[in-house]
Each structure stands twice: as structure tokens, then as C-alpha cells.
What does this fold into?
Amino acid sequence: MISSNVSYDSILEELKNQETGQRTLILPDTFLIKVPKFKHRIGNSYLIQHINRKEILLIDTVHEDSQPILQDFIKNGYSVAGLLLTHSDLIHQSYTSSLEKLSKDLGDTSIYIHPLDAGSQGNFANNILEANEVFDKFSITVDHFPGHTGGSVIIHSEINNGMLFCGDSAVGAPYDSSNYYFERPPISNESQDLGLAQHWKNYIKPFKHILPLHGKPQFDLSEGQQKDIIIHLSKNEPTKHL
It folds into this structure.
């Protein structure tokens, strides 16, 4: 458990120096598992423990480097309540590229993804936009954020006073940067990019922590910092490079 006097700067320093395939407790009952860089900076995947049950919920946790950690949890009596994917790229970047095998390797867990991004593997996935008991347990809500892909989503949990898992709809600053910022990913189609900007402009759920798929997260945000992040992500100018 992270105590109230732990500095988030020390957690970010740990993440900066962490090897891929290792886990770091970033918030109470919430782990970040670092995975190798793919396009836009170092990758992050996430694991949430249920405080009252031996269950874990996974978000974008599909890389080969994360499998030993997940199997350790399973060996220690945890069950995987579900695997949530923020967009289709996670399927192709996984160690198997098969939703069916991903599910079986995690104890026949349910996989959730937007139908537009499930493709031909839709029979092995659940619609991530539909309410269900798993999401209720972990206080999860999901919003459709097309732009990076047609079925991209962002995931909000009320745990820890509001965690926002933004997938590839926002990319964080590099771990070795002293700055904090979030950019939309480069999107060549102007209308899709502006559509993503509009989704950010309309987003109103409060979040205390923003946890991207790529780049460093930011913790313990004030209302003003949340507003500044949303304003920057909803700007009209496209992201030219990262």
C-alpha cells in the first residue's frame, strides 16, 4: 500500500529506471507494468487488485514481458476478472495476436474491446461499452474516443479518487523529460484528428491521475491541472511528431 507521505516524484523516478517486464505499485492496489517501446515512447500496461477479493483487472496488459507477473498472481490464488483493451493495436502487439489464446492463458477470462476494433475476432470478445458486473466491481466506466482507431476508448475508474486510462488517445511526456504534458497521437486523417480533439473537449469526468499507454503518467492532479490537460488535448492543431 502506498502511504500518503510517499512522493509521486520517487515513484516516477522508479518508473524511469525500471526495466521492462517489472511492476511498480503506483497507487493503492494499482500496478504499472513497463513494456518495450512501440512507436510512441515506452509502453505501460496496468493491473488493479480488488481490495476485497482475490481478483485482478487488466488494462492493455498483453505483452510477453507482462506474462510472468500475471502468472505469479494466478499461482498465488488470484483470478483475472477481465482484460480491457483500449484499441485494436493491442491485439497485434500482444505475444499471441489471438484473443482466444489471451483469454485461455489468463484462466478463460473475459476480454473487452470495442466491436469496431475486434475485427474477425469479435466472437472471442465482449463489447467494452456494455455495463457488466466486472466493471461495477472496479468502478469502471468506458467512453468511445474514435480517432487513433475507429473503436478507441478511454477507461475511467473511481478507485483512488479517479484514474483515467487513456490508451493511445493521449500520449504522455517521455520518462526522461522533466516536463509533464499530454499530446494526441499523430493522426494523418484531419477529420479523425479533429474528432478526437472534440471528444477531449467534451470530456467532463473528474480524474486525479492520468495513466497513458505510452509516456509517463501524472498523479495527484488539481482541478486546474486536469483542465489544462483537457484544453491541450482538445486544441485544433494536430500533433506533428512525438
Summary: The first helix runs from residue 8 to 17. Residues 1-5 have pLDDT under 50 and may be disordered. The chain has one domain: 8-233. The chain is about 25% helix and 25% strand.
